[in-house]
């Protein structure tokens, strides 16, 4: 396998020599990577926490793609990264070490630096009047913190606004939950889901850029007949799959599976819905896939379900039985929409009370950075 082929599946951005931020996915119509002629004075001041990480870099990509208005951006990371220079949209920035005072004068902070960093600095940012959108699991199950997918439950954060003089904290759900509920919620609104069984097939991107690099390295090593390097995971990842690497709880479910259970109930505001999940790590570079079985309170036939999904924001239907063409992780990589297919009646349930669907979504995009930016957009 050639390096160029593997590189095409890697993160579509990075730091070039000299610290210039660039992406390989596409150039904007201006002929370059989106040089802004002028910053928006009517926009909020932003801070990106964890800007050197995979999701932190994708924050910048989504901001550029969606022309998110801002009057300034503060690039924040660990002490190790402080002092590096980064060029974004024609302006050069110096990455600053994250400190509590980093949020002075900041309207919106996008966090993706891990739960411990969020717990340490999120409340400090809020105390300074900043609205924090946090991508970690630190606050997701806090009853005082809205857990939001903008297409699903925007009303949960209706009380938070930028410029109100008060800070606020909003949690970004887990990537597998976002991808699942983007497809399941429109059907839930129509017929009410009583029980949901989810099996996930999760890409390396969910474990960060280092895991993506290790999958590429292992692929080369295995094809060359060498033993694979196993630094991120404890076992061979290339040409293999295994139970998700999240810690296993006393009930036998791992943390990733329990996130799907708990977060679905909170987002749907329904403690009675039954959810069970099995999460698997598969050797895919980017974008997660999920098989979802739904049991409804009211009948819902598959043709009606397809029409509902075709009209759902952020969802695209790929469901061509004749050519056996359905969603794949590769098709949705670097895409904003979640793809749904394999829409079919569950033959084990009577009276059109069950459906099976197959869902694919970009874990870094909609599963993380895009969802956070969409939250920020609704705050303005």
TrEMBL record:
Ranges in a coiled coil: none
Gene Ontology BP term (one): threonine biosynthetic process
Protein name stated in the entry: aspartate-semialdehyde dehydrogenase
SUPFAM superfamilies to which the protein is assigned, alphabetical: Glyceraldehyde-3-phosphate dehydrogenase-like, C-terminal domain, NAD(P)-binding Rossmann-fold domains
Enzyme class: oxidoreductase
InterPro entries: Asp_semialdehyde_DH, Asp_semialdehyde_DH_beta, NAD(P)-bd_dom_sf, Semialdehyde_DH_NAD-bd, Semialdhyde_DH_dimer_dom
Family classification: Belongs to the aspartate-semialdehyde dehydrogenase family.
Assembly and oligomerization: Homodimer.
PANTHER family (alphabetical): ASPARTATE-SEMIALDEHYDE DEHYDROGENASE (PTHR46278:SF2), DEHYDROGENASE, PUTATIVE-RELATED (PTHR46278)
Semialdehyde dehydrogenase NAD-binding domain location: 45-160
Organism: Spirodela intermedia (Intermediate duckweed)
Active site per the UniProt annotation: 175 (acyl-thioester intermediate), 288 (proton acceptor)
Domain of life of the organism encoding this protein: Eukaryota
One GO MF term: NAD binding
Gene3D superfamilies on file: Dihydrodipicolinate Reductase, domain 2, NAD(P)-binding Rossmann-like Domain
EC number: 1.2.1.11
Pathway participation: Amino-acid biosynthesis; L-threonine biosynthesis; L-threonine from L-aspartate: step 2/5; Amino-acid biosynthesis; L-methionine biosynthesis via de novo pathway; L-homoserine from L-aspartate: step 2/3
Keywords: Amino-acid biosynthesis, Diaminopimelate biosynthesis, Lysine biosynthesis, Methionine biosynthesis, NADP, Oxidoreductase, Threonine biosynthesis
Catalytic activity, reaction form: L-aspartate 4-semialdehyde + phosphate + NADP(+) = 4-phospho-L-aspartate + NADPH + H(+)
